[in-house]
Amino acid sequence: MKVLIVFYSKLLQDNELLQKVVDKVNILKKLIGPDSLYAVITTEMKDFIDKFPDLVFIRNDEGTFLYGLYKGLRKLRGNDVLVLDPSQVISLDKLKEFIAKKRQNALYSEDGRWKGIALLRLIDLDYLIRTLEGLLGEEKELTTVMEKVSQEYGIQYETL
């Protein structure tokens, strides 16, 4: 399993972003291991490269969440992927719960809105990538994307 932290331009307005990311990265290094951590960053976030030497970085040229997710999933094709939004606060228990769900797609959402963590299975990644390609010009939430994947390909996911 690989972890993909998706950064996008709107996060630059968050003053506490760096502290949230430091906490998440430290927890993930212990849970999953430092060799499985990837981050998609915008060009404005180049200083993150020096602050997080354990992460493997992927460029997000457009600065949107969906484009960053698309680029990251293409890079990590061939693995189960745990997707994280760095702006959301996620508890250690919630991370462990998602890591334990290895054989099904899972999405953490409340009231139909994505809350920053999703587990995507290797077998379904190509379908998700294909769907993302059609949505790149739009700014949609991950719950909307997963619903579209479910409608088009019949791929089920669990919401927690």
Question: Which helices and strands appear, and what pairs or packs with what?
Answer:
Blueprint: E1 2-6, H1 17-31, E2 37-41, H2 48-51, E3 56-59, H3 65-75, E4 81-84, H4 92-100, E5 105-110, E6 113-120, H5 125-135, H6 142-153, E7 157-159
Parallel strand pairs: 1-2, 1-4, 2-3, 5-7
Antiparallel strand pairs: 4-6, 5-6
Q: Describe it for me?
A:
The structure is a single chain. The two termini are 19 Å apart. The radius of gyration is 14 Å and the shape is globular. Helices cover 39% and strands 22% of the residues. The chain has helices at residues 17-31, 48-51, 65-75, 92-100, 125-135, 142-153, and strands at 2-6, 37-41, 56-59, 81-84, 105-110, 113-120, 157-159. The longest helix is centred in the first third of the chain and has 15 residues, at 17-31. It is an alpha/beta fold and 160 residues long.
What is this entry, summarized?
The protein is of the alpha/beta class and about 160 residues long. About 40% of the residues lie in helices and about 20% in strands. The two termini are about 20 Å apart.
Please report the distance between the alpha carbons of the first and last residues.
19 Å
Computed Rg: 14 Å
**Unreliable residue runs:** none
Strand content: 15-25%
Largest sheet at a glance?
7 strands, mixed
> What is the helix content?
25-40%
Widest sheet: strand ordering: 3-2-1-4-6-5-7
Mean pLDDT across all residues, rounded? Answer: 92
- Tally of DSSP β-strands: 7
Structural class: alpha/beta
